[in-house]
Design goal:
This protein has 138 residues and is mostly helical. It has 2 domains: 1-99, Multidrug-efflux Transporter Regulator, Chain: A, Domain 2 (Orthogonal Bundle), CATH 1.10.1660; 102-138. Helix content is 62%, strand content 5%. It has 7 helices and 3 strands; from the N terminus they run βααββααααα. Strands 1-3-2 form a 3-stranded antiparallel β-sheet. It starts with 10 loop residues before the first strand and ends with a helix.
Amino acid sequence: MAVNKSKAAFRTIAEVAEELGVATHVLRFWETKFPQIKPMKRNGGRRYYRPDDVEIVKIIKNFLYDKRYTIEGVQKVFKEKGLKNLLGEEIQKDFFEEVVPDLKLDLQNREFIMDLIEELKATKDELQQSLNKIEKAS
């Protein structure tokens, strides 16, 4: 089941497992051993891997399966070299490349966006007040 997603798209654990040729339980295990893997978890604990998470998992798989390192060996490499050196700058730079075009906003659009921001702030305040009431009641 090959899925054609953009580079910036989040992937499910099943998609990542299929792409790498490992089982999903292996990915979950690696999450316990490598805190650098931080998939977003949604309702019911469903994991969504960011592009950087996928790259980290690829690096881990390469060290474990191809270079024959132990888990402890890979952890040591991560600690000594640092994640940014292993990932490189390109991953972070092009993460949103396809998503954010060069925008030019006229005054009307700027005002519209500022109004939206104010509405969001007001909604956030209302939600916080509701949460505070619920916490006091329990």
